[in-house]
Amino acid sequence: MEGMTRRRWMAAAAAPLLARGQTTRPPNIVLIVADDLGYADLGCYGHRLNRTPHLDRLAAEGIRFTDFYVSWPACTPSRSSILTGRYPQRNGLYDMIRNNEVNWKHQFTEEEYAVSPEMALGLDLREITIAQVLKQAGYTTGVVGKWDSGRARRFLPLQRGFDFFYGFANTGIDYYTHERYGVPSMFRGNERIKESGHATDLFRRESLRFIDQAGSRPFFLYVPFNAPHGASTFDRDARQAPEEYLRKFPGDPRAQYRAWVTHLDDAVGEILATLRKRGLEDNTLVLFTSDNGGSARDSNAPLRGGKAQMFEGGIRVPLVARWPGRIPAGKVSHVFATTLEFFPTFAKIAGGTLPAGTPLDGVDFLHTLRGDPAPVRSGMFWQRRGDKAARTGNWKWVESERGGGLFDLSTDIGEEKDLSHERPADLARVKGEWQRWRKEMDAAEPRGPFRDY
Ligand SMILES: [Ca+2]
């Protein structure tokens, strides 16, 4: 691969007028994030009922990770780490931006919603997003889908380094009305809009438009689909997936979920087809992951637990990456890595400058994406309210309302056998590392909205 790149570069140097722009232009980056898609939900991760041919092909053309994690087992904080490259406990967004009453069938008026926590909270404005870094490096930046990092204007993507935004800013909507429990929630730029269509179709359409209109500059397109997350609607019986997709799964009790997954897969397929049609395939790094684990057992098996939990089912997710000529096809990586790695990796690829004086919690793992099996991190730490977890090497420690223990992931990916009593020294070491991490987070500059005190 290296040789091929060098030959291309030399050919370009010999004929600068012909191909110089093609080979010196930094790659486009397309980051697609599913919502609540579990570790086992894709065909390429072994699922037998979900149909994901486009994502399976993406994995066959690139690399697929078995030990990839998010920083929190649910939406908002997990996304904050993707955007900032920092633990939620460091960037301040370490819980959901959510009106709890909303989930209890409370119908907000516009006026009441306007002063609710969901409207007032957001990612601390001192945080630097990956879009800001890439924009400074000359990229056109767009986000299409679920922003989930603050709904007040100052928190919206156009104020946070993105040139383009189409989607919703809170944490969930009805797929067809685009309302969050009755509150209209779709945006174009800074303005709320109303239009008809299924959210997945609209996000596909806007992603294609963004690519078509990106022009000659390299682009960063972040597509956080809300599929296959459950709909935030009062009417639990309302159909939330297109009939043509539901029909593919007759008699299946999870037909709607599988329809959401296949619909999402088709949308990803169209994004990939557009890159190909526009001749951008070779110079685009495409990544696909999820923001947290799935809610149902068959989405996460053989992992224990699921969304909102500290067991692997809540935090271990798929990662597929493709960059023709740079990432070898058909690879599977067992390297332990996380979404915290995206920020420094994208900055490096783009020739961007890392923000001075801002500690990042991840490392550039481009070599890992390219198949290098060398370890990139020794540990990762999680906290959700009173629930705690750490992975160091293959040791996993959990202390949570749902249970806990010390597990050896190299032989027990399902966290079935608690080794706390057999391996007290390992337990003490892993817990000690978690406590050191917690002290570091406490000592970090206090950031809002939950901590700034
Ligand atoms: Ca989620």
Structure description:
With 453 residues, the chain is of the alpha/beta class. It has a single domain, classed as 3-Layer(aba) Sandwich (Alkaline Phosphatase, subunit A), CATH 3.40.720.10. It has 16 helices and 17 strands. Strand 5 and strand 6 form a beta hairpin. The protein is globular and about 60 Å long. The termini are far apart. The N terminus is likely disordered. The structure holds calcium ion.
Features:
four-stranded antiparallel beta sheet; single chain; disordered N terminus; 453 residues; binds calcium ion; globular; 16 helices; Alkaline Phosphatase, subunit A; eleven-stranded mixed beta sheet
Q: Can I get a quick summary?
A:
With 453 residues, the protein is an alpha/beta fold. The protein has one domain: 3-Layer(aba) Sandwich (Alkaline Phosphatase, subunit A), CATH 3.40.720.10. The chain has 16 helices and 17 strands.
